[in-house]
Amino acid sequence: MIIKTRTSADIPSSEITPEEVYWSRRDFMRVATAGTIGAAAGVLLVGGDAASCAQVPTTPALAHVTRNPAFVVDEKVDPVTSYSQITTFNNYYEFGTDKSDPAANAGRLKVKPWTVKVDGLCDKPGNYGVEDLVDFNNLEERVYRHRCVEAWSMVMPLDGVPLASVLKKVGPQSKAAYVEFTTLVRASEMPGIGSAGIAFPYVEGLRMDEAMHPLTFMVVGLYGKVLPNQNGAPLRVHIPWKYGFKSGKAIVRIRFTDQQPQNTWAVASPNEYGFYANVNPTVDHPRWSQARERRLPGLFKDRPTLMFNGYADQVAHLYQGMDLRKYF
């Protein structure tokens, strides 16, 4: 059994790139024009949405982050969403159901020490620290589209490692057909637990071929900084061709299984949310169309939704022969 409690939040100051250096070399003005810099207060402010009064404290920059040119978008078509927007407009029901609630409430969450339980059909079960699972000396940044089932979307520069590299460390067995993720429940620090209307802990899962796909990412940072609490610190997954509810935040357990996991939203509302959650503009949510989307900070659904969120060339083969209206 391996137990370590050093996490991304505990990185020594000697290993953290000074923020002014990071931003200067990454061209601060290009990525910050959509937000407003509160120089006197040391915060970023968002305008034009329900989170306009939310304040985003600065967070430490991560060292050893390299932009991966294989995972980018055409920024003329998909402009990168500002850091301030990404961190103040969130779905994270543990902290409240309004989009501004996570930024307002997640600061109380203690993310160190942090332990992830790994069990099920794997060769190396045990309790792992975040840095046992993620190599912080070889982080990469990927620019990914993010699509929410409510028909809004973002483009996010996420920092982390391929999920496959994490899972391979613990040796999934041949019988493991799925991997299940369970997220933190800590009512004393999560004010939305008792009023969110869904059961906790939040559970999500992937088929093993989805989990091991090169696009699937284990995230520890955003915009080259330590991942903010409201975005899932210290450890979350991102599957860019699926709706956002598949991307579990604040992961505390990874379980390998031969049975399809009972993911939270599919249990809570099976006619609205399926296990696969692939972005598919031809399958409407029962209460709204998925054919078009609102790209934040925009106000209107003026963009056509792309099949598999624009990643069809890479992932469509995973679902060959499946009825995507049935397996939604």
Provide a concise account of the structure shown.
The protein has nine helices and 16 strands.
What is CATH's topology name?
Answer: Sulfite Oxidase, Chain A, domain 2
Largest sheet: 8 strands, mixed
- Radius of gyration (CA) equals 19 Å
Give the count of structural domains: 1
What is the beta-strand fraction? 15-25%
For this entry, give a set of tags.
328 residues, alpha+beta, eight-stranded mixed β-sheet, Sulfite Oxidase, Chain A, domain 2, disordered N terminus, globular
List the helices and strands and how they pair.
Blueprint: H1 19-25, H2 28-32, E1 36-38, E2 43-45, E3 55-57, E4 65-67, H3 83-86, H4 101-105, E5 115-120, E6 126-129, H5 130-133, E7 139-147, E8 152-162, H6 163-168, E9 178-183, E10 203-207, H7 208-211, E11 217-222, E12 225-226, E13 236-238, E14 251-257, H8 264-268, E15 292-295, E16 303-304, H9 312-315
Parallel strand pairs: 4-7, 5-14, 8-15
Antiparallel strand pairs: 1-2, 2-3, 5-6, 7-8, 8-11, 9-10, 9-14, 11-12, 11-13, 15-16
Overview of the molecule:
By secondary structure, this protein is α+β, with helices and mostly antiparallel strands. It has a single domain (8-319), classed as Sulfite Oxidase, Chain A, domain 2 (Alpha-Beta Complex). The protein contains nine helices and 16 strands. The strands form three sheets. Strands 4, 7, 8, 11, 12, 13, 15 and 16 form an eight-stranded mixed sheet that branches. The protein has a five-stranded mixed sheet with strand order 6-5-14-9-10. A hairpin with a 7-residue loop joins strand 15 and strand 16. The radius of gyration is 19 Å and the shape is globular. It starts with 18 loop residues before the first helix and ends in a 13-residue tail after the last helix. The model is unreliable at 1-55 (pLDDT under 50).
